[in-house]
């Protein structure tokens, strides 16, 4: 049954209203004019007035364009052929290769029944010591990277994607600069992970509505791989662009804004996406790592604030490294007791000493006299930043722990570290 | 009553109805594929009824059928509620998982209680007796409780018991009594009944002044900012300050009969923690699994918004039902901000004129009437029962000036404000000891509490001064006050949530330790200089910390107590410069770190 309607009554922003009947809420449609065709989604039904959010924007839409309803919600093809492919925000290939012929699955599936979730218990190794040692990423965790424009958050995300031990890597880019997209692509290609990664990329030049679909596409595909028993890692960048797209549509739809122009359901919209992170009882898992750019480095801005209430911790990326204070993986204690017996001790001792080092630096900067202890702390801080915090460092957890012991031994006496004696005896590097 | 959909927008449906419509009654939107989506009438304008749909509205069309019932949104009450995990509309999640698998399929609803399970009924009412709503007719054993089978609360007037079923095993649908009304009509009674969630359930002689302390075994709450059975309290705090951890610990250790946990719009992972761990944990007071005294209502952030709004009412109604049996019930709502946001979303869709931060104008009265469902009551048979409500608040940006926090503070009896500074410093619980308050009297004499608070306040003033003038510019007396405040904070206010002993302190021990701490705080320590002062306080801090880790009346406990008493008797001379400096151990640091997470 093909249904065409051509009475377009309103065109405003990215929303087109058409007179039509028998249309389902959330249903997909195509709008076809003489020169262009675009997908659109039903976002409001009012009598015979159907409002559609047009993916490609409404530039050039005429009142005589034809609207064809597809009788199904937005879908994405799902099969192993997706690997190595790049799509745009409406699911079309953007790598110049043909469409993927496969069974289509709905995006925006219902929530997971909480009783079918497992307690998170498996660590995701990333090779980044600041994550593995100090704030371990756990399977099924949802964790944002809070950052500001200009920080290398996309590089960090790419490195995690490259180094993480996941079966499937899905990258969702929202409002990406085109060169960032190319960088992601070449990084994945050179790193040899393109064969197990899938990209959904919306660049800043693309229509804003397509930005809204990117997380849903990524998560729908990820969820189906997880149901097959695979361990999926979803990388999203950046969720602030997504939230701004939500804001734009909400204002066009004349919704009452709640906080700084964002719609009142921002929390719900974000939570519905982040909460897709899951460790299925009886299938695989999906882990979500997302970049959130904090406008003006303000963590109380509605986007980072609502995100913080949803996610299980956060990483702060500042001055080129992951800030050891404030960054927190809420799930780390589920896994870091099971890696190596010195993991927790090193984690606490290194951070406490680094905190002392920062105090000493403050003292130094204020012109106070440096004691011998202060100067050792300063040496320690320098080594720690260079060998551990540096984002270029790519070593497995065990090697990172050994390296921490090395730094500690170089700067301190065993008792000064505050580490329990039994652990010291076992791990303190013996003098050569 | 039936109608047809004329408009769909988000989870709002407007339907044109023929005939009578009851405000807040239940409706079903019938999707063309046969699924019936539960909804609720929230506004009537002429023949138009606005419904909020408790499911995703995907696929609904203009012209689809809407069936409207007379009844308001209700829950089923009867034996079998304890230990269950429900969604916000009382669908049992384990059964849903068995039927629908990994996902919550829209339009799948399951009866909240098993209709097959048989319960051993013991009658207590005699035929011929006169009864009215809420009077027990008999009981069945449910876990460690005698679950009273009561005359349905909705029955108005007086009834004569015609007959009662003999002792035996029956299902909840079996007739266990027949009542005869004054008009001569007879009414069969089963073990289950229903009650509309938005109407408070309270069949009692009178409401009482809540006075009996509710011991949570969290020292800073019980000693400094107590709550009482039948009282209300709130826990506002920015993200990461430990609201949920605090509620989880409370749900484990609180000295109360039944705990209803309403996970409202929060992370699914946190509910999973509760529902996977509680069956494994034993309640130290009964020796049974903690799950046997717990009901979990979970409507996590990804689940439909309208059901989130209903979920706190569902939880309150179940809690009130057990209160009717003479039990003391604690309802923990996490978080009321998400519930308020759900109201905001609905209000926005109804295009109501927004109040502050776009919350509806009726926000404060809704919050007030929710907390008013708490209370201690004298039941018709003279027994006293209570419902205590504790809600967390998640203020945007951690700013307590926002409408939900302010609306809550007006109506609760205790305020446990969590502070970002304390949680960043890994102090658990991160309740701010200077800003928080309680209107109730707890297990410690208020005069003693006042003394300690003044030490804390002065200590904080000295610290602020010291930040400006430095340690050198502070007198030794002032410095000592700051050290004493730190000592109290470290040894009493903070607890290690991961240490078996320190995680939960019973009331007796709290009173005992508090007195010792107060004695130390009141000591006139004779110290030569600041270093000496610091050494003395470090020594006594170490003593008390280790004491906190020692099981009551263990050898360690007694040994340390002797040292503490010697310290007090000698005004700090017995240990000063002696055994101080011994590190408390990294386990403490690690525990404190972990305690702050969540």
Write the layout of secondary structure elements.
The complex is a heterodimer of chains A (432) and B (598).
Chain A: E1 3-5, E2 8-12, E3 15-19, E4 28-32, E5 37-46, E6 49-54, E7 66-69, E8 75-77, E9 86-87, E10 104-106, E11 123-124, H1 129-132, E12 137-138, E13 142-147, H2 153-163, E14 168-176, H3 178-191, E15 197-203, H4 208-227, E16 231-237, H5 239-252, E17 257-259, E18 262-263, H6 266-274, E19 278-279, E20 285-293, H7 302-310, E21 313-318, E22 321-322, E23 328-329, H8 343-365, H9 372-389, H10 397-411, H11 421-427
Parallel strand pairs in A: 9-15, 13-20, 13-21, 14-15, 14-16, 16-20
Antiparallel strand pairs in A: 1-7, 2-3, 3-6, 4-5, 4-7, 5-6, 8-10, 11-12, 17-18, 19-20, 21-22, 21-23
Chain B: E1 2-9, E2 12-17, E3 25-30, E4 36-45, E5 48-53, E6 65-72, E7 74-77, E8 85-86, H1 93-100, E9 119-123, E10 130-132, E11 136-142, E12 145-150, E13 158-164, E14 168-170, E15 177-181, E16 186-189, E17 193-196, E18 206-208, E19 213-214, H2 219-224, E20 227-228, E21 232-236, H3 243-253, E22 258-264, H4 268-277, E23 294-299, H5 305-323, E24 328-334, H6 336-349, H7 363-371, E25 375-378, E26 384-393, H8 403-409, E27 414-415, H9 420-424, E28 437-438, H10 446-469, H11 476-493, H12 507-522, H13 530-549, H14 555-569, H15 586-596
Parallel strand pairs in B: 8-23, 21-26, 21-27, 22-23, 22-24, 24-26
Antiparallel strand pairs in B: 1-2, 1-6, 2-5, 3-4, 3-6, 4-5, 7-17, 9-11, 9-14, 10-13, 11-12, 13-15, 15-16, 18-25, 19-20, 25-26, 27-28
Helix pairs in contact in B: 5-6, 7-8, 10-11, 11-12, 11-13, 13-14
What does this structure look like?
The complex is a heterodimer of chains A (432) and B (598). Chain A has 3 domains: 3-69, Elongation Factor Tu (Ef-tu), domain 3; 75-331, Rossmann fold; 343-427, no CATH class. Chain A is built from 11 helices and 23 strands. By secondary structure, chain A is α/β, with parallel strands linked by helices. Chain A has helices at 129-132, 153-163, 178-191, 208-227, 239-252, 266-274, 302-310, 343-365, 372-389, 397-411, 421-427; strands at residues 3-5, 8-12, 15-19, 28-32, 37-46, 49-54, 66-69, 75-77, 86-87, 104-106, 123-124, 137-138, 142-147, 168-176, 197-203, 231-237, 257-259, 262-263, 278-279, 285-293, 313-318, 321-322, 328-329. In chain A, the strands form 5 sheets. In chain A, strands 9, 13, 14, 15, 16, 19, 20, 21, 22 and 23 form a 10-stranded mixed β-sheet that branches. Chain A has a 7-stranded antiparallel β-sheet with strand order 1-7-4-5-6-3-2, with no helix packed on it. Chain A has a two-stranded antiparallel ribbon with strand order 8-10. In chain A, strand 2 and strand 3 (15-19) form a beta hairpin. The relative contact order of chain A is 0.12. With 598 residues, chain B is α+β, with helices and mostly antiparallel strands. Chain B folds into 4 domains: 2-72, Thrombin, subunit H; 83-101 and 203-438, 3-Layer(aba) Sandwich (Rossmann fold); 119-194, OB fold (Dihydrolipoamide Acetyltransferase, E2P) (Beta Barrel), CATH 2.40.50.100; 446-596, Bovine Mitochondrial F1-ATPase, ATP Synthase Beta Chain, Chain D, domain3 (Orthogonal Bundle), CATH 1.10.1140.10. Chain B is 32% helix and 24% strand. Chain B has 15 helices and 28 strands. In chain B, the strands form 6 sheets. In chain B, strands 8, 18, 21, 22, 23, 24, 25, 26, 27 and 28 form a 10-stranded mixed β-sheet that branches. Chain B has a 6-stranded antiparallel barrel with strand order 1-2-5-4-3-6. A 4-stranded antiparallel β-sheet of chain B has the order 12-11-9-14, with no helix packed on it. In chain B, a hairpin with a 4-residue loop joins strand 15 and strand 16. In chain B, helix 13 runs antiparallel to helix 14 (555-569). The longest helix of chain B is centred in the last third of the chain and has 24 residues, at 446-469. Residues 576-598 of chain B have low confidence and may be disordered. Chains A and B meet through strand 5, strand 17, helix 6, helix 7 and helix 8 of A and strand 1, helix 1, helix 4, helix 6 and helix 15 of B. Strand 5 (37-46) of chain A pairs antiparallel with strand 1 (2-9) of chain B, so a sheet runs across the interface.
């Amino acid at each position: 049954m093909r249904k065409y309607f051509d009475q377009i009554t309103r065109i405003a922003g990215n929303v087109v209203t058409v007179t039509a009947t028998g249309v389902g809420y959330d249903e997909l449609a195509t709008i076809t004019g003489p020169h262009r065709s675009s997908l659109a989604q039903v976002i409001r039904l009012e009598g015979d007035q159907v409002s559609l959010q047009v993916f490609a924007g409404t530039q050039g839409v005429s009142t005589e364009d034809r609207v064809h309803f597809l009788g199904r919600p937005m879908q994405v093809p799902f099969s192993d052929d997706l690997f190595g492919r790049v799509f745009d925000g409406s699911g079309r290939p953007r790598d110049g290769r043909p469409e993927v012929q496969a069974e289509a699955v709905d995006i925006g599936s219902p929530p997971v029944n909480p009783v079918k979730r497992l307690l998170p218990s498996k660590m995701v190794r990333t090779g980044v010591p600041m994550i593995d040692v100090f704030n371990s990423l756990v399977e099924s965790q949802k964790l944002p990277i809070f950052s500001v424009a200009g920080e290398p958050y996309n590089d960090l995300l790419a490195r995690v994607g490259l180094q993480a031990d996941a079966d499937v890597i899905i990258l969702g880019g929202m409002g990406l600069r085109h060169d960032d997209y190319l960088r992601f692509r070449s990084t994945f290609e050179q790193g040899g992970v393109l064969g197990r990664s899938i990209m959904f990329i919306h660049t800043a030049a693309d229509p804003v509505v397509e930005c809204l679909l990117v997380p849903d596409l990524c998560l729908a595909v990820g969820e189906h791989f997880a149901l097959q028993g695979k361990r999926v890692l979803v990388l999203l960048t950046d969720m602030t662009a997504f939230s701004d797209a939500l804001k734009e549509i909400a204002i066009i739809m004349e919704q009452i804004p709640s906080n700084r122009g964002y719609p009142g359901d921002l929390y719900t919209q974000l939570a519905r996406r982040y909460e897709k992170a899951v460790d299925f009882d009886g299938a695989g898992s999906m882990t979500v790592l997302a970049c959130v750019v904090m406008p003006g480095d303000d963590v109380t801005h509605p986007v980072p604030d609502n995100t913080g209430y949803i996610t299980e911790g956060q990483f702060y990326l500042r001055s080129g490294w992951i800030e050891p204070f404030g960054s927190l993986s809420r799930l780390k204690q589920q896994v870091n007791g099971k890696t190596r017996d010195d993991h927790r001790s090193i984690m606490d001792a290194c951070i406490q000493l680094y905190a002392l080092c920062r105090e000493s630096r403050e003292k130094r900067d204020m012109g106070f006299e440096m004691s011998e202890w202060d100067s050792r702390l300063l040496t320690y801080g320098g080594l720690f930043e260079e060998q551990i915090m540096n984002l270029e460092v790519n070593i497995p957890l065990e090697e990172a722990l050994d390296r921490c012991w090395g730094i500690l031994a170089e700067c301190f006496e065993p008792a000064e570290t505050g580490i329990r004696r039994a652990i010291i005896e076992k791990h303190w590097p013996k003098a050569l | 009553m039936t109608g047809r959909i004329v408009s769909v927008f988000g989870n709002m449906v407007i339907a044109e109805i023929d005939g009578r419509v009851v405000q807040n009654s239940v409706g079903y939107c019938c999707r063309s594929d046969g699924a019936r989506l539960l909804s609720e009438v929230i506004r009537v304008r002429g023949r138009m009824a606005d419904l909020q749909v408790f499911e995703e509205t995907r696929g609904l069309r203009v012209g689809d059928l809407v069936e409207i019932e007379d009844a308001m949104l209700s829950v089923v009450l009867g034996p079998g509620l304890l230990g269950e995990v429900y969604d916000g509309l009382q669908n049992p999640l384990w059964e849903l998982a068995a039927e629908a698998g990994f996902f919550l399929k829209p339009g799948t609803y399951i009866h909240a209680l098993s209709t097959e399970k048989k319960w051993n009924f013991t009658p207590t009412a005699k035929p011929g007796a006169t009864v009215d709503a809420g009077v027990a007719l008999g009981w069945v054993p449910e876990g460690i409780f005698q679950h009273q089978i009561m005359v349905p609360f909705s029955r108005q007037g007086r009834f004569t018991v015609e007959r009662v079923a003999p002792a035996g095993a029956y299902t909840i649908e079996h007739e266990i009594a027949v009542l005869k009304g004054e008009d001569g009509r007879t009414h069969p009674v089963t073990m289950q009944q229903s009650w509309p969630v938005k109407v408070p359930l309270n069949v009692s002689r009178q409401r009482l002044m809540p006075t009996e302390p509710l011991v949570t075994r969290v020292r800073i709450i019980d000693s400094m900012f107590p709550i009482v059975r039948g009282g209300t309290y709130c826990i506002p705090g920015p993200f990461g300050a430990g609201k949920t951890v605090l509620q989880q610990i409370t749900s484990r250790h609180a000295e109360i009969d039944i705990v209803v946990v309403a996970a409202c719009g929060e992370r699914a992972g946190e509910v999973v923690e509760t529902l996977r761990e509680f069956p494994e944990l034993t309640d130290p007071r009964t020796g049974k699994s903690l799950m046997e005294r717990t009901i979990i209502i979970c409507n996590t952030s990804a689940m439909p918004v309208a059901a989130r709004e209903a979920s706190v009412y569902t939880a309150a109604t179940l809690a009130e039902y057990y209160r009717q049996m003479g039990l003391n019930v604690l309802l923990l709502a996490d978080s009321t901000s998400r519930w308020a946001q759900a109201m905001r979303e609905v209000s926005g869709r109804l295009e109501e004129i927004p109040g502050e931060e776009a919350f509806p104008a009726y926000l404060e009265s809704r919050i007030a009437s929710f907390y008013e469902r708490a209370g201690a009551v004298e039941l018709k048979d003279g027994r006293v029962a209570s419902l205590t409500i504790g809600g967390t608040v998640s203020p945007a940006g951690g700013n307590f000036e926002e409408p939900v926090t302010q609306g809550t503070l007006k109506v609760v009896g205790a305020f446990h404000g969590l502070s970002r500074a304390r949680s960043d410093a890994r102090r658990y619980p991160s309740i701010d000891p200077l800003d928080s308050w309680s209107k109730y009297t707890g297990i410690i004499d208020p005069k003693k509490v006042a003394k300690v608070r003044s030490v804390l306040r002065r200590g904080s003033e000295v610290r602020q001064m010291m930040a400006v003038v430095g340690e050198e510019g502070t007198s030794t007396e002032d410095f000592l006050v700051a050290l004493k405040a730190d000592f109290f904070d470290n040894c009493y206010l903070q607890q290690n949530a991961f240490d078996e002993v320190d995680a939960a302190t019973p009331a007796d021990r709290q009173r005992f330790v508090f007195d010792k701490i107060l004695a130390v705080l009141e000591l006139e320590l004779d110290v030569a200089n600041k270093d000496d002062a610091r050494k003395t306080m470090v020594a006594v801090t170490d003593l008390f910390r280790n004491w906190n880790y020692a099981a009551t009346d263990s050898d360690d406990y007694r040994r340390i107590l002797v040292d503490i008493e010697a310290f007090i008797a000698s005004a700090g001379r017995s240990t000063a410069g002696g055994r101080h400096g011994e590190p408390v151990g990294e386990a403490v640091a690690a525990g404190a770190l972990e305690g702050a997470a969540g």
